[in-house]
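Collaborator request, handled under Task 6.
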Amino acid sequence: MENQMSFIVKLLLLSALLSLLIKYATPSLVIPATAINALIIVLLPPVIMAIALLWRFQAHKQN
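Structure tokens returned to the collaborator:
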């Protein structure tokens, strides 16, 4: 139970930090509103997740 609670607290802290970073740091970034940038922003998370899952599948397959 203690291990799960510490995981949840860490996850909440990381989420809050990411939220503050998005709210206060990203307005200073200058990213032009182009179709390519929109595609990158939309497609990058699924591609990263697919790579991570494929890497995990390959590691599990070798064991």
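The cover message to the collaborator said: "DSSP finds two helices and no strands in the chain. The chain has a mean pLDDT of 92. Please let us know whether this matches your experimental observations."
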